[in-house]
């Protein structure tokens, strides 16, 4: 047996050292590194939240929530920014919902796999990678100056809508793709036209996924800052905004302004405003999770 | 997408065709946006380059947009941007990759269920909040004690927060890449006597390398385009330096600075905003396309 084994084949066997102890030790060390890395990440998150909340808590009171910004920190409040953020999020949802869902229906249910539809798909994926500030530059040129909307809430909402649209389209497409083919075939078999199939059968089944996508997109829109600086959200607004012809501000911009002020009190104001923003985003995320759980409960296949 | 075709293809009713037209127009909004962005950037940037020659812009080492004499050499902004992105990657690649490996290969389903939302939480933090964290904790507490001679605003502080920001991106994309590696490959390695760590290091990571590289390039693109965290953490001091303790200005931070001031439309500074925007757009586009290429080129088909 041994005589038949050529030397070349025997050589690796001779060099083979099981040395399991050392190899297993390397694995254990690596697992330790993994846990350490995750631990550092979670610690960072904890320190960040603690840093913000510990500063914010003494400042979070009725005065802060109902007041307007002031040059004196103790009288400053966040109401115009809060209202601005909510208004802009609702406007963004109103604009992106019809366009985003329609685009997703076209790409998922109508378009054949031809050059044009591939171009549309690739383009949407690429748009999702454009830095948000570039959308701001585009919004400045198109909505603020081109369409003459000026530095209005509407111009800001339209700019953010373009930014959010790829997210809504991709989420809606995924929701529709998850609807089984049999669902469509059944509707076609009943004599439905293409639109009747989509509107009556696919959309209701995909609704939870689509709604979740839109709410998560709203949460993202609420946290966006850079594009709004370009389209003129100003930082010192003491009144509640109206959509067409007044200045406006939003929470992230208010945070940016306060955070840029080196005085301690204003840093605390920034922390308090961040807390309000995070709570708002948390509520939106929670709503998205509840919708997904509620609406998809009786839709199982 | 749909493979079902409508039976009895008589003439499609008008209503159906109108609906399809509306759906198509909505899908075309994306293309219009892309065309619009490119058109706006090119149109305004050309105006800028009529006054400042392209060569001077690309090779100039002094950027002074608000203090006379005005100089528009983009290199300081570019090195600032790349330095911040580089440090961000130095932070995010090890942390993101190791977390991705852990989630894909080691974590039990229960731990994954717990960790993934936490990572998404970090990814969802508005960037202005991370900027606040940089000027309130990372600069004054962490860096002041660790790095002698560092100021309140520094490349290092900006790089670290942007690193925190893109870590979840690398983690989740590289996790996806590793989970896509077929089980048979792992089983083969185990059958040959490899330990768990050897399977990960010699089989899974090499097999997922294209996805991992793509995630890193995408993270770089995000870091280059990142704005608010960088504006707050890095400051507004355009200078050509490689010293990470210094305050610099990135391309995005310049755009914000010009937008915040009362820069009249049509002035040279205002046009410079578009030129810098165009430069930024080209850099991120190149990175995004490169990332697509890496995935397409080096994907192992099983």
Topology:
The complex is a heterodimer of chains A (301) and B (302).
Chain A: H1 7-15, H2 20-56, H3 62-66, H4 79-110, H5 115-127, H6 132-146, H7 153-177, H8 181-189, H9 194-223, H10 226-230, H11 251-259, H12 264-295
Helix pairs in contact in A: 2-12, 4-7, 4-9, 4-11, 6-7, 7-9, 8-9, 9-12, 11-12
Chain B: H1 14-51, H2 54-59, E1 63-64, E2 71-72, H3 75-106, H4 109-124, H5 127-146, H6 155-179, H7 183-191, H8 196-207, H9 209-225, H10 228-234, H11 251-260, H12 268-298
Antiparallel strand pairs in B: 1-2
Structure in words:
The complex is a heterodimer of chains A (301) and B (302). Chain A folds into 2 domains: 2-59; 64-295, MetI-like fold (Orthogonal Bundle), CATH 1.10.3720.10. In chain A, 73% of the residues lie in helices and 0% in strands. Chain A contains 12 helices and no strands. The longest helix of chain A has 37 residues, at 20-56. Chain B is mainly alpha-helical and 302 residues long. Chain B has a domain at 78-264: Orthogonal Bundle (MetI-like fold), CATH 1.10.3720. In chain B, β1 and β2 (71-72) form a beta hairpin. The interface between A and B is large, with 89 and 86 residues.
Query: Could you estimate the helical fraction of the residues of chain A in percent?
Result: over 70%
Which stretches of chain B are poorly predicted, pLDDT < 50 over at least 5 residues?
none
CATH superfamily of the domain at 78-264 in chain B: MetI-like
CA-atom Rg of chain B in angstroms: 24 Å
CATH architecture of the largest domain in chain A: Orthogonal Bundle
Number of strands of chain A: 0
As a percent range, the share of strand residues of chain A is: under 5%
Cα-based radius of gyration of chain A, to the nearest Å: 27 Å
CATH class of the largest domain in chain A: Mainly Alpha
Number of separate structural domains of chain A: 2
How many helices of chain A? The count is: 12
Give the termini distance of chain B in whole angstroms. 24 Å
Largest sheet of chain A: none
Gap between N and C termini of chain A, in Å?
Answer: 59 Å
Do you know the CATH topology of the largest domain in chain A? MetI-like fold
